[in-house]
């Protein structure tokens, strides 16, 4: 059924977006360590983490309409 397949595909995409968000968040904290001089990398990956989470939230909102 088309509806169920579409919903499953959107759920899969949501999971991918959230996974990417967590990976970027982890990378952000890695680069934010005191013994690394890469604070701009930390900011960049934190920004990317937020972007990916926003993508997931938009998909979840669209599913609930």
UniProtKB/TrEMBL annotation:
Task: Share an example GO biological-process annotation for this protein.
Answer: intracellular iron ion homeostasis
A Pfam family that the UniProt record links to this protein: Ferritin
Q: Which reaction does it catalyse?
A: 4 Fe(2+) + O2 + 4 H(+) = 4 Fe(3+) + 2 H2O
The answer to whether the entry has keyword Lipoprotein is no
For molecular function, the Gene Ontology terms on record are: ferric iron binding; ferrous iron binding; ferroxidase activity
**GO CC terms on record?**
autophagosome
- Establish whether keyword Metal-binding is in the entry: yes
Q: Where does the record say this protein resides?
A: Cytoplasmic vesicle, Autophagosome
Q: InterPro entries recorded for this chain? A: Ferritin, Ferritin-like, Ferritin-like_diiron, Ferritin-like_SF, Ferritin_DPS_dom
Assigned keywords, A-Z: Iron, Iron storage, Metal-binding
Q: Quick one: which residues bind Fe cation?
A: 17, 52, 55
Where the record annotates domain Ferritin-like diiron, the positions are 1-65
- Report the sequence similarity comment from the record: Belongs to the ferritin family.
Q: What does this protein do, in the record's words?
A: Stores iron in a soluble, non-toxic, readily available form. Important for iron homeostasis. Iron is taken up in the ferrous form and deposited as ferric hydroxides after oxidation.
Name of the protein described by the UniProt record: Ferritin
**What phylogenetic lineage does the species belong to?**
Eukaryota, Metazoa, Chordata, Craniata, Vertebrata
